[in-house]
Write a structure and sequence with these properties.
Glu/Leu/Phe/Val/Trp_DH, Glu/Leu/Phe/Val/Trp_DH_dimer, alpha/beta, nucleotide-binding, nucleotide binding, six-stranded mixed β-sheet, 14 helices, Rossmann fold, binds 2-oxoglutaric acid, about 425 residues, glutamate dehydrogenase (NAD+) activity, binds 1,4-dihydronicotinamide adenine dinucleotide, globular
Length: about 425
């Protein structure tokens, strides 16, 4: 039978399993099995050559019982409705895991920013905000960066929203530049969170970070900072990749040089001749493997060939459920996306809190709080996995779904 690569239906399956294990009713699953709201928008954009192009975008709001919904916006040619829905459900789980007063939201626009000018990207960003402005806001649904979106795009979106509402609204969006109410530490937060999870997972497996061989798929916001943190901690980053291929060197790559040369889309391998494919890279020798790019990368096809002892998912949805089962059976410790990549939304929450209170924290304060949240979340999920005899993904779903379920119950929805 063909493997299920549908992110939405496989997420539903695990949510159902988690709710059943926690003793919730079928009605609770009916409520949480898909977003409460899904908006599809069409965005007309004047292109630089004078033509008008219509872009399609989405915003999904999974469950707003715990508080406003929250989650990033992705600009990518492969964005689709089902993926955005699944991404919004994962945001609910992340908020539950790191104990934030949010439900999950997520958005995306089908486009390829690598083929667009800055002006065209700005027009898409502003057009997207105009199109979804009725359903978002600092106390409704708060966007943030994701694949191929960054702090400049957040700034344009914040400006557009503030103009529509006719007041300055820094709390409308997170991941902003520092000059516009961004938080210290947000840019590196996803990678910081992944790093904390790697350290915790390595302790569980008795692996020394110093000298450990690490492969990181993706060299964008998450992957590049993570490579740097691992390198600085004394690990040997032997492989990295981007959308065009991968680089592997058993003696360790020169991470500082690669960081210096990468472009703003996280592209670096196009400067080299001796590249491997992304699929080859995933199967190469290492101790720790970090998929930090896109979904469905570790599947039933290659899960048997993964050499790492630990897989830590910085990306959303990089490992299928069948591959999760195979890795688990092989004794590989998999730290799931909803835990490992929750550092980004954690510091986004800190940014929103700082915007609301109008008083800003130092980078040390932010990093301390992040460290406390993430280690607590890791320990909690590891413990649930051990005591309930389930893998880390199911344990993370069990921990993550509880807050939305309880909030929905107290509101009298179910
Ligand atoms: N930026 C954030 O705060 C957060 C990001 N994530 C997840 O981390 C992953 C990476 O996101 P960012 O680093 O923010 O994005 P980014 O846009 O900064 O970088 C994306 C990287 O993935 C590579 N890539 C794109 N398409 C690819 C393909 N088909 N095959 C292999 N590599 C490909 C790009 O070349 C680039 O190196 C995504 O799954 C995202 O959802 C998760 C939590 C928070
Ligand atoms: O920072 C945020 O609010 C959301 C980050 C995000 O989209 C994610 O964790 O996938």
């Amino acid at each position: 039978m063909a493997e299920n690569l549908n992110l939405f239906t496989s997420t539903q399956n695990v949510i159902k399993e988690a709710l059943t294990k926690l003793g919730y009713t079928e009605e609770m699953y009916e409520l949480l099995k898909e977003p409460l709201r899904m908006m599809t928008v069409r965005i007309p954009v004047k292109m630089d050559d004078g033509s008008v192009k219509i872009f399609t975008g989405y915003r999904a709001q999974h469950n707003d019982a715990p508080g406003p919904t929250k989650g990033g916006v992705r600009f990518h040619p492969e964005v689709n409705e089902e993926e955005v829905k699944a991404l919004s459900m994962w945001m609910t789980l992340k908020a539950g895991i790191v104990d934030l007063p949010y439900g999950g939201g997520k958005g995306g626009v089908i486009c390829d920013p690598r083929q667009l000018s800055m002006r065209e990207i700005e027009n898409i960003s502003r057009g997207y905000v105009r199109a979804i402005s009725q359903i978002v806001g600092p106390t409704k649904d708060i966007p943030a960066p994701d694949v191929y979106t960054n702090s400049q795009i957040m700034a344009w979106m914040m400006d557009e929203y503030s103009r529509i509402r006719e007041f300055d609204s820094p709390g409308f969006i997170t991941g902003k530049p520092l000059a516009l109410g961004g938080s210290h530490g947000r840019e590196k937060a996803t990678a910081q969170g992944v790093t904390i999870c790697i350290h915790e997972a390595a302790k569980k497996r008795g692996i020394e970070i110093k000298g450990a061989r690490v492969i990181v798929q993706g060299f964008g916001n998450a992957g590049s900072f993570l490579s740097k943190f691992m390198h600085d901690a004394g690990a040997k980053v032997v492989g990295i990749s981007d959308a065009y291929g991968g680089l592997y060197d058993a003696d360790g790559l020169d991470i500082d040089y690669l960081l210096d040369r990468r472009d703003s889309f996280g592209t670096i391998t196009t400067l080299f001749d001796n590249t491997v494919t992304n699929q080859e890279l995933l199967e190469m020798d290492c101790d720790i493997l970090v998929p930090a790019a896109i979904s469905n990368q570790i599947t039933a096809e290659n899960a048997h060939n993964i050499k790492a002892a630990i897989v830590v998912e910085a990306a959303n949805g990089p490992t299928t459920l069948e591959a999760t089962r195979i890795l688990s059976e092989r004794g590989i410790l998999l730290v799931p996306d909803v835990l490992a990549s929750s550092g980004g939304v954690t510091v986004s929450y800190f940014e929103w809190v700082q915007n609301n209170q109008g008083y800003y924290w130092t980078e040390e304060e932010v990093n301390d709080k992040l460290h406390r949240n993430l280690t607590k979340a890791f320990d909690n999920i590891y413990e649930v996995a051990q005591t309930r005899g389930v893998n880390m993904r199911l344990a993370a779903y069990m921990v993550g779904v509880r807050r939305a379920a309880e909030a929905s119950k107290f509101r009298g929805w179910v």
